[in-house]
Amino acid sequence: MDNKNDMNVQVDSTPTFPLIGRPAPKFTANTTHGEINFPDDYKGKWVILFSHPADFTPVCTTEFMTFASMHEEFRALNTELVGLSIDSVHAHLGWVTAIKNYSWNGIENPEVKFPVIDDVKMEVANKYGMLQGESDTAAVRAVFFVDPDGMMRTILYYPASLGRNFNEIKRIIIGLQKSDAEGVALPANWHPGKDVIVPPPSTTDDIKKRLEEVKGKEEYNQLDWYLTFKKDQ
Ligand code: BEZ
Asked: Measured from the CB, is residue 186 less than 6 Å from ligand 1?
């Protein structure tokens, strides 16, 4: 039941929100692939946990088709996908079976090979802040990026009416992996191949050292003492 106009609706569980930079909240859940322990089952891999408002709905169907079509691209980035909605495994299975018959946007007969969580009790939805102001019973479009150590690294929340940008979802994984591997930060609208940012110096000595380090070198572009770009390797 939607509560837009009813402020007296009682919800029996207080929502909480995961935090970037903290461990991803743990849970055990039943899925279309059996039970999972999150995030422990995904140690050593990146994982994208995402929610959608409901099975058998239009925007969600386009998103599932897109996730299914990109599954191998994510796997190539050591990244697994886990879906969730406040629906049963039975409903999920019916929906993903139906999706196999569809073709849209160059995606033909997609097979959903990742697990989809049954969250009819809304336990995960409440733990992950997936139930927000639009509905008491349908999750928003949330995306949680969890690293191989089980830490929450990025969180996106979209409303029901707006399908997600999958180029951005992939860019986030690539960007987080690059930042971790090279100890660099990434500027606005960064994408692979573009200049990265060298962490700023933190002492006056380091400022001088940085100036020496970059002087006359083509791979660096220093706008100011605290903002140095470096060509992508
Ligand atoms: C959709 O996926 O189309 C949708 C789902 C819930 C509310 C609105 C739209």
From this structure: no
* C-beta of residue 117 within 8 angstroms of C-beta of residue 124: yes
Question: What residues of the chain score a pLDDT lower than 50?
Answer: 1-11
**Closest ligand 1 atom to 60 CA:** 2
Which two structure tokens, joined as six digits, stand for 4? 């837009």
Q: pTM of the predicted model, to two decimals?
A: 0.93
Spell out the residues 6+ positions from residue 69 whose beta carbon is closer than 8 angstroms to its own. Answer: 107, 110
All structural domains of the chain, each given as residue ranges with its CATH number in brackets, are: 27-164 (3.40.30.10), 183-233 (3.30.1020.10)
Query: Which among 28, 29, 98 is positioned nearest to 64, based on CA atoms?
Result: 98
- 42 CB-contact burial (10 Å; exposed 0-12 / middle 13-18 / buried 19+): buried
pLDDT at 233: 74
Over pLDDT 90: what percentage of the chain?
94
Atom of ligand 1 nearest to the CA of 134: 7
